[in-house]
Please model this.
Amino acid sequence: MSLEESSKVTRMIILGPAANISQPELIRKLHMMELPLTIKSTCYGAVVNGEESVVNKAVEAARNLDYCNVFTKDRGFPPGDPRRCRAKRGGAREGFHQLEKEFELLGFVSEALEHPKKVSLKKPTKVSVDTFKKIAKECEE
Model:
């Protein structure tokens, strides 16, 4: 791997099941940005590879198309890398089944992003017996 290749990053852009943009539209929008990127069309969206700042710009633009339904994650290998490319190795690529499972959850994540609710991570404390008796007595009256 050359020094130039080692400074590049690869991100997966994944369209959720309720995305308001199709995979071909996503690819077209990425190409229309005319950024110095390698863009690979995939069944779930796209893989983009390039300098980190440029990749981040493309990812941000993709997320802005449908913020609650466009997801992204790092990918350790650039598109077409022989260590991962199924054209060279045959069969589903390693990690595809993980992505398939993650995809099943994206609808729930989209729903949470569209309709956020305030949650508390603080574990509730038990009510003392005396407090419980007091509440029960008030309910009887």
Remarks:
- The first strand starts at residue 8 and ends at 15.
- The beta strands are 8-15, 38-42, 45-51, 70-75.
- DSSP finds six helices and four strands in the chain.
